[in-house]
From TrEMBL:
It comes from Bacillus songklensis. Gene3D superfamilies: Lactate dehydrogenase/glycoside hydrolase, family 4, C-terminal, NAD(P)-binding Rossmann-like Domain. The keyword Transferase does not apply. This is 6-phospho-alpha-glucosidase. It comes from the Bacteria.
Length: 441
């Protein structure tokens, strides 16, 4: 079996230990020769990196592993896969993304609404720089990107690198949903054949077939309406995530044709969701006080005792495993099916060709082969076109340094609607992001 050279960008992420554990678990199905972690935050990465050394010594001793803050060491000609999970501005800026809109009376969320706009405007620069850095050395490496907000990042990368066919933007939320369906049905997620359409964090499952071709969606819908919905890993989830999944029941009750992505709650029920959000204590605070604290305390404990044998910080979660099984399918030309983000180009007949849509596709060594969706209903088409216009204008606002297009983008977003409120929010976000955004004129 061929072995691959892999770079993880964003090695200091709280999600990295789960990814590292998945690398150990899947070493026989995705064999790695050399693994390097890169992060601009030396302190965070050192903690994760030293933990990784202990983990690999015990579970993957033949792996050549290192971590660095030096791009010259990280970007090499022999790279095969670059796994990206950056967060420009860190959790301190995420907190601003959530609290500034909330202080002005609109949804404050990491990837949706004005918070997603602010995050996207920060992410574009670093993602473009990353692609250029990779391509300066490794012309043929696959770049598998988790960096959020994936819809805005995907649109920007498609515009700037239209001929680069080895950039694949992915999101683990459809995978999380499939695994949650699997737990509900007591079935293996890999036995599902899903049909899905939409934009990232803005889509629907229309069918969910089993190995015999039976559509399980009607059964799932009835189960959700009867007993509610929880994430597959609900025992480890923070309270806000449990509330997010619980909203699926309401969405399905109002719009029963398809099963929704959980993020649709912010767009379909902004008034209801807004009432639940605490402007003083947002999900960013929940993460920093919860997962962030748990992960780094446990990594430090493992480093101190010198063994990961009894560690609870690493579990084979969807985030860590999903990006690896995507890489496996490409690396070994397996052609497995996944929900990924691709340029439309006729996949969905009645949406713009340049929209970056999230759909099911077979992943091969020669890239994704998407499954045609055909025409979608008027209701879903209308929602998607409005959201795509917001995303497109966000990217154009960044590329052109246009205040007008930024204002148009936020006015279109369903979490705001009011042009006056959009201007108020935009001006506050400009002030908070002056060290990250281009100047908007």
């Amino acid at each position: 079996m061929r072995k691959f050279n892999v770079l993880i960008v964003g090695g200091g992420s709280t999600w990295t230990p789960g990814l590292l554990k998945s690398i150990c678990v899947r070493q026989k199905t995705f064999s790695i020769n050399r693994l390097v972690m890169l992060d601009v935050n030396e302190e965070r990465q050192k903690t994760i990196g030293e933990f990784a050394k202990i983990l690999f010594k015990e579970e993957y001793p033949e792996l050549d592993f290192s971590y660095t803050t030096n791009k010259e060491e990280a970007f090499t000609e022999d790279l095969d896969f670059v796994l990206v999970q950056m967060r420009t501005g860190g959790y301190s800026m995420r907190e601003q993304d959530e609290k500034i809109p909330l202080s002005l009376g609109v949804i404050g969320q990491e990837t949706c609404g004005p918070g997603g706009f602010a995050y996207g405007m920060r992410s574009i620069k670093d993602m473009v720089e990353l692609v250029k850095d990779v391509r300066s050395k490794a012309k043929d490496a696959w770049i598998l990107n988790y960096t959020n907000p994936a819809a805005i990042v995907a649109d920007a990368l498609q515009r700037i690198f239209p001929e680069d066919k080895k950039i694949l933007n992915i999101c683990d939320q459809p995978e999380n949903l499939l695994r949650s369906y699997g737990r509900l049905l007591n079935m293996d997620t890999r036995d599902f054949d899903p049909v899905y359409f939409g934009l990232n964090h803005f889509g629907w499952f229309t069918n969910l077939y089993d190995q015999e071709g039976n559509d399980l969606l009607p059964k799932l819908r009835d189960m959700i309406l009867e007993s509610g919905f929880r994430p597959v890993d609900y025992e480890q989830r923070d309270k806000s995530w449990l509330e997010t999944y619980a909203m699926v029941e309401q969405i399905v009750r109002d719009f029963p044709d398809y099963l929704p992505n959980t993020y649709l709650q912010y767009y379909l029920y902004p008034d209801k969701v807004l009432k639940k959000l605490n402007p003083e204590h947002t999900r960013a605070n929940e993460v920093m006080e919860g997962r962030e604290k748990r992960v780094f305390e446990e990594c430090k404990r493992v480093i101190e005792v010198g063994t990961s044998k009894d560690s609870h910080v690493v579990h084979n979660d969807a985030h860590g495993e999903f990006i690896l099984i995507v890489a496996e399918s490409i690396a070994y030309n397996k052609g497995d099916n996944f929900v990924v983000i691709l340029k439309n180009d006729g996949i969905i007949d009645n949406l713009p060709k340049d929209a970056m849509v999230e759909v099911a596709a077979s992943l091969t060594a020669n890239g994704p082969r998407p499954y045609a969706v055909g025409e979608i209903p008027t209701f879903h088409k209308g929602l998607i076109e409005g959201q795509f216009a917001y995303e497109k204008l966000t990217v154009e606002a960044y590329l052109e340094g246009s205040y007008q297009k930024a204002l148009q983008a936020l006015t279109l977003n369903r979490t705001i609607v009011s042009a006056g409120k959009a201007r108020e929010v935009l001006d506050a976000l400009i002030e908070a992001n002056k060290d990250f955004w281009p100047e908007l004129k």
